[in-house]
Amino acid sequence: MIEKKDFFDFAPKIISWIDRYFKNLESFPVKSQVHPEEIYKQLPTNPPNQSESLDDILDDLDKIILPGITHWQHPNFHAYFPANSSIESLFAEFITAAIGAQCMIWDTSPAAAELEKRVLNWLRDEMKIPNHFEGVIQDTASTATLSAIITAREVVTDFEANENGVPSNLRVYCSTQTHSSIEKAVKIAGIGRKNIVKIKVDEKYRLIPEELEQAIQQDISEGKIPCCVIASIGTTSTVAVDPLYEIGKICQKYKVWLHVDAAYLGTALLLEEYQWMNRGIEMADSFVFNPHKWLFTNFDCTAYYVKDVNLLLQTFEVLPEYLKTKTRGIVNDYRDWGIPLGRRFRALKLWFVIRSYGMEGIREKLRHHISLNSYFASKIESSPHFELMMPPFATFTGFRFRPNGIDDLEKLNQINKDFLNSINRKGQLYLSHTKVNDQFLIRMIIAQTYVNQHHVNKALDLLTEEAALF
Ligand SMILES: Cc1ncc(COP(=O)(O)O)c(C=O)c1O
User: Fold this and answer.
1) pLDDT tens track for 83-111
2) Atom 9 (ligand 1) nearest CA
């Protein structure tokens, strides 16, 4: 057990552990290579009765835990979307943990509430989201989307669902490419999975607005109630961008809540050249993006914006006696802005990151990632071993291994699956896949905070070496 007064004697052990971790990071397998239960079985059945030393705990961290870690901060982590971080964000997390504030209401840490308001306003303005939107930090995009769908449910039922339960004829629309968090939110919100309407996409995997309008009209003619539409700026599978303006017009016409899921690609709105994705944003009711994906702020940190905060408050507010304060109504009590009561002080890490990088530094890094991706795609395109399946976009390239003489779709899919497994097993790169039009496609995402040219070259070399083995 460590006394507070001894903090300074022990803290260097942790700092040097982290320093060693960063120095050795690139020598670890990116994707953990352990088998199911391998870690669990090494952990004692019962907790220790007597105090154990920090040295012993750190030893076991190295021996038992580290092999079971997939290293998301490894620059050759190219799978899924990143959960990137930065030194600044890590430092802020130290301090957040030291302060240990529970920021449920303004009174329980005024600085946390006011910093949250300020940094979210900064990002909103820099992303050119209209300034009548107000933001709140949530743990994940899934929670933000759940909040949006529950609010939409209340608006469309005139707040009756909160009082009497959810009618069975509310409808939620999204494209076939939309993230699974929408389906989960619809289930949790009591709307029922059968009431999700998946709208067809075009050849670029974007929701087709005419199909959306037809689906809404059809539902209305059958007595169903359109409740919410989800548009994506950057789908998970292929980073497709739905036509927000056209979708927004339809939502206005039929008075349907429009939620924009920009979990990953939203960060690109900080760049002028990606502002086209924002056309129509003024017609949205809510918008979410994750600084914990591509804004160098470690998990968890989601920015959720709503056009009319009162609707959010009316949906979530409950006021037990013990939470009544004198400042109520003149400050932001964020407990009313989402699902949990208790809240971490997450704004601090965003503040550290934004101040230490500056907006120019952030933009520079984003553009660096994007240019590395274009370089990667150009090499794939000119390689005799690979086929570029989707043009590079932002930090994403979709490609597949294309051995000479194999044209059969099933065979190509299987060989690509094997190729990807083999690459990931070797532990020097980590990539993930998707399937589009029945074709297995390898996803390359180049967006880890500290990724550089030589990491991309290494990835290209390893892919080429692997191709030679098949
Ligand atoms: C487009 C999209 N929306 C939502 C999510 C869910 O994000 P979170 O893990 O923050 O809930 C993801 C996760 O990758 C995503 O890609």
Assistant:
1) 999 999 999 999 999 999 999 999 999 99
2) 140
